[in-house]
Amino acid sequence: MRKTNNLCADIGYISLNHAGEQLCGDHVEVAGQDESSTVIVLADGLGSGVKANILSTLTARILSTMLAAGLKIEDCVETVAATLPVCAIRGIAYSTFTILRLVNNERAEIIQYDNPSVILLRDGKNVELPAIMQDIGGKRIFRSDVMLKENDVFIAMSDGVEHAGVGGVYNFGWRREDIVRYMETLWHVGFTAKTLATILLEETNRLYEGNPGDDATVCVVRIRPRVPMNLLCGPPSSRDDNNKMMSLFFGKEGKHIVCGGTTSSIAAQYLKQPLIADLDFPDPDIPPTATVAGVDLVTEGVITINRVLEYAKNYLEDNSDYERWSQGRDGASRIARLLFEEATDINFFVGCAVNPAHQNPELPINFNLKMQLVEQLSDCLTKMGKRIKTSFF
User: Fold this and answer.
1) Strands 37-45 and 95-103
2) How far apart are CA 216 and CA 224, in angstroms?
3) What is the pLDDT of residue 1?
4) Is the torsion defined by CA of 247, 248, 253, 257 positive or negative?
């Protein structure tokens, strides 16, 4: 079996609807060929509203599904052309598109049709991508091929981003070189792909003065090394398994997060280290953290994980809670930073013991809730592109 490198793709995208429209005319679709190869399609449907939404969704789905199945780009584009005819009135295609195909996390194949050209930031500077023009079914398709380097950032966007500020802040819209300069200043910070996409789209919305004259979508792909992370939640169903669970957990490479009072006591006992409670309450709704030498972060259990789940759901939507968890000192914010920003591969160790404190009918917390929280959080993290493995004890 061919060994792949230690790189992976952090993918984040976000859209802004045309003023007055409930649906976005742009659509992003991500499809995996395997663990190290991914197809990302950003499609921009003609016009805005329901029709544009249907057209862009169809285009993105057809292209991503066919390419992920290994079909040639010529066949994929011809299928789209046959499925979505040219607009009879304007004589232009119903949907434009940008495709980023990552192969073995070693190279990127970029295929573009009538969307703004993809920006590549390498070592903090813009790199012009050499492109070959190809005629496929009467469409001028531009193709680029580039070998990947760690910390490469690819920025794909719909033309609504470049049109921002037309007739207002800027006479002719936000020029490509202005967008490049704006994003170059953010490259060094190490933001996640979703955060970079959010920052660029917020600036786009500002230039539209909060009244977008077009749908605008940004999709960012950040190439980064894999980073493992381990989270332990709850004691095992049998006390006899305490040592087994702890030795497997602490034997894993990467940082270690322990959630729950009983669980942290067991971890402290296993490590033969004192458990020191922190009396500081940075967030009055989140129980304070604690310290155990050998553990990167010790927090309370269910309440903290529930807040992390809220942040994860918001991250997948408009990421509006970013400032709260990116700067917060409470346990939930610190877990969010570790899982959302740092980790690429997350191992959940879930103890199945029933906590007697949770059996009080007055409390809306039970064993099933903990399982649901972990399951929902795992689901959100998978949607963020993380590799998740869950072990039950």
Assistant:
1) antiparallel
2) 26
3) 36
4) negative
Which range among 105-109, 137-141, 368-372 has the greatest average pLDDT?
A: 105-109
Mean pLDDT of the chain: 90
Residue with the two structure tokens 């584009």: 77
3-class SS string, 99-142: EEEEECCCEEEEEEECCCCCEEEECCEEECCCCEEEEECCEEEE
3-state secondary structure of 342: helix
pLDDT of residue 39 exceeding 80: yes
CA nearest to 160, candidates 120, 121, 200: 200
Amino acid occupying residue 42? L
Extract the tokens encoding 388. Answer: 């998740």
What residue spans of the chain are helical by DSSP H? Answer: 49-68, 73-83, 159-162, 176-187, 193-207, 242-250, 261-271, 302-316, 322-327, 331-336, 367-383
Residue 56: both structure tokens together = 């862009």
Output DSSP code: residue 228. E
Distances 302 to 147, 187, 242, 277, 306 between C-alpha atoms, Å: 44, 35, 20, 17, 6
Task: Say what percent of the chain tops pLDDT 70.
Answer: 91
Give SS3 for 154: strand
Cα–Cα dist 117/126, whole Å: 12
* Cα 216 to the center of its chain, rounded Å: 18
Amino acid 5: pLDDT: 76
* pTM attached to this predicted model: 0.89
Domains of the chain listed by start with CATH number? 7-225 (3.60.40.10), 228-392 (no CATH)
Confirm if 138 and 104 have CB atoms less than 8 A apart. Answer: no
Q: pLDDT tier at 243 (50, 70, 90 boundaries)?
A: very high
Whether the Cβ atoms of residue 61 and residue 29 lie closer than 8 Å to each other: yes
Burial-class residue 323 by CB neighbours within 10 Å (0-12, 13-18, 19+): exposed
> How many whole angstroms separate alpha carbon 153 and alpha carbon 151?
6
User: Does 378 score more than 60 pLDDT?
Assistant: yes
Q: At what angle do helices 49-68 and 73-83 cross, to 10 degrees?
A: 150
What is the model's pLDDT at position 280? 85
The CA R_g of the chain, rounded to the nearest whole Å, is 23
Distance between CA atoms of 245 and 230, rounded to whole angstroms?
A: 12
